[in-house]
Structures
1.
Amino acid sequence: MTDSPSSQRWTAILLAGQRPGIDPLAESAGIARKALIPIAGEPMLARVARTLLACPSIADVVVLSQTPDALIADAPAWMAREPRLRTAAGGAGISTSIAAVAGGAAVPWPVLVTTADHPLLTVATIETFLAGVGEADVAVAAVERQVLHAAYPGNRRTWLKFADGAWTGANLFALRGDRARPALTSWAEVEQDRKKALKLVWHFGPLLALRAVTRTIGLGGAIAAAGRRMGLTARLVPLPDPTAAIDVDKPADLALAERILQAREAPPA
């Protein structure tokens, strides 16, 4: 007898790799690795790891990086001692690195994927996302523009415009089992275009791309249709938390995230 989706505990893959060359944000902070940039007094990697470990639905966290031992050696000491936190070595590509470990003994299904540059993630947001996955093989979290701009007017993101609104990714992905592997192959094809909205849309295929460009299909419908083309069930999980859309890629993101965290963690008046 298999567990129902609601009773499963997930393995979280925490992506903490470094892209080729010098990361300008890390360089401006005087830090060798972007994942270790401090924010509100704590490295981003540690913040996201703590949040994941606090989630009732998550069993273990695996930090995936090209040099995981060196990364953890430079991270807060508690991470090396945490029994539910492990590391795995990745390669040059995100999706191929995930595919190499997901579903193995060290990273059993189902798998949640998120990133170290997402320090505003909360337990509530992660649990909302996982509850929305249901029985889908693959699920993707996103935030609609009105949700983000209602809280943070004018915040700049990469927007995908569909019939049901303009959407930006929330760096939360669910992979429930081996049926999700074709999605990882597809992910490998779009990695270079993830910040270029028009190019990214064309990876849905010509017909779906045309419907997206003419806004005759919603993002949820497009993701479901793309999943059917790959022989799997794919689902969009819209998130109500505007901060789920704010990852830290540039100095303005870092400053905004710092303000949000300081406000969250300020003692009650």
2.
Amino acid sequence: MTFSIAAKCRHTGMIGTGVTTKNLAVGARCPFVRAGAGAVLTQQVTDMRLGPRGLDLLSEGKTADEVIEALVAGNETVGWRQLAAVDGDGNTAFYSGDSVPTIRAGHQGDGCVAIGNGIRNSDVPKAMVEGYERYPDAHLAERLLSGLEAGMAAGGQFGQITAASLHVVDTHVFPIVDLRVDYDPLVLAKMRFLWEAFEPKIDYFIELAINPDTPTNPYYVA
């Protein structure tokens, strides 16, 4: 029972994911993102092997459609899976297996794709895309979180959600946003709190990594 979103920002080129679910540690199991390549979501009966494989295919220049087709082809257990991908050009694709026993749906927007299973209605992914597209000039992480919040407002999923993650990459080998909430009864409210606290510090942390001699370093000695 998970609903998630992946996107490439048309303005900045950043790529990211937002996920929430009823099980713990979703940020370690479902979203996979690589700078310059794209993102892959794997959920429902989650197969974590599909994320890295999908990223490798994206890094080879495969489109989102080609990646999903490759992950599905010859996979005897894929009927239990739900997948989505966004490539480096912002193309998107998704797949929902026939063995997924609950409501399963997906929706695509401009450079973004949302999927959900165990959701209360099939309009949840559409609402997520609309929430994402509502603030086109906002930071990608803000837009992804807005998508999750819109999905929850549209009905969300059955059962208590307990975990969420926000993951964004830019031009660096490391993620510029990697926020996770686990085992919290107010998951998205906690994620909103973390994101609003972290956003003003993004450039600061990047600068310290690249240029530790910067005067903004608290340990800088002139």
